[in-house]
Amino acid sequence: MSILATVRDRRRERPVNRPPGGLGRTPVSYSVLVVLGLFAILPVLVLVFNSFKSSLEIGANPLGLPATLDLSNFAAAWRRGNMARGFANTAFLVAGTILGTWLVAGAAAYSLARLNLPGKRKIETYLFVVISLPVQMFIVPLFFLWVKLGLINTLVGLVVIYVALNTPFSVLLLRTFLVGIPKELDEAARLDGANEWQVATRVILPLSWPGFMTVGLVSGLGAYSELLFAVTFLIDVEKMPVATSFFQFSQGYSQLYNLVNAAGVIIVLPLIVLFLLMQRRFIAGLAASGSKG
């Protein structure tokens, strides 16, 4: 009883308005946060301001406010960059990458976290090693392999590459979520007559959906902004994703910077809207997962 009383006394003496780690709400901490916020938001504001300017105005005033709010840059960028077709191709790549990563990484992470898989430590070490390797070293042999398989210049072939690139990290990330789920739930389900598929889909999957949401977000954003493999494995312009539309804004040896900035705003806008719509649900899911685990 004396130990419990001592713990209670220490909890009462702990400052309530001080966050973990000993960092109080001081003017210095707020100043640092404001500086970091400005450092993050200023490039975005410059991008938005320049999207309304002409090329001459960008050269004369690259960091200031636009003289007029001219929306013609957005229409010209959308038309010249063929962004409607680019967004359609990107949507296919993102959806295919997320679904493929969920399927492959989910099955692998479930095996590593919930089953008595022989050599699981070696597999985890292998995944860590694969993550540390630069992806550029696989381009040349993968290109010749894709030519022989007939997957060159196809969106499906690019989806397979994106799934392979995202799977190692996704497996390790999902494994951390699955390990935190008590194994007593598996045993109780098996005692009730559930097979392995039912345990995975009806017991483990509903409890680990925040992990799958995180994996989907990371892999989807990676596929949305990926450029190197897209320009290497795709030849037809009609199959290019929206990230490659910036190549259409060259005129001789110069760049149409007004169209480049307008296209950048168009590409970034869906990500901002997605973040505003899903941030509360995503954070709430992570908090619920942490309280249950």
UniProtKB/TrEMBL annotation:
It holds the Pfam family BPD_transp_1. Its main location: membrane. Residues 87-278 form the ABC transmembrane type-1 domain. Coiled coil: none annotated. The keyword Cell membrane applies. The keyword Transmembrane applies. Belongs to the binding-protein-dependent transport system permease family. PANTHER family: ABC TRANSPORTER PERMEASE PROTEIN MG189-RELATED-RELATED, SN-GLYCEROL-3-PHOSPHATE TRANSPORT SYSTEM PERMEASE PROTEIN UGPE. This is Sugar ABC transporter permease. It comes from Plantactinospora endophytica.
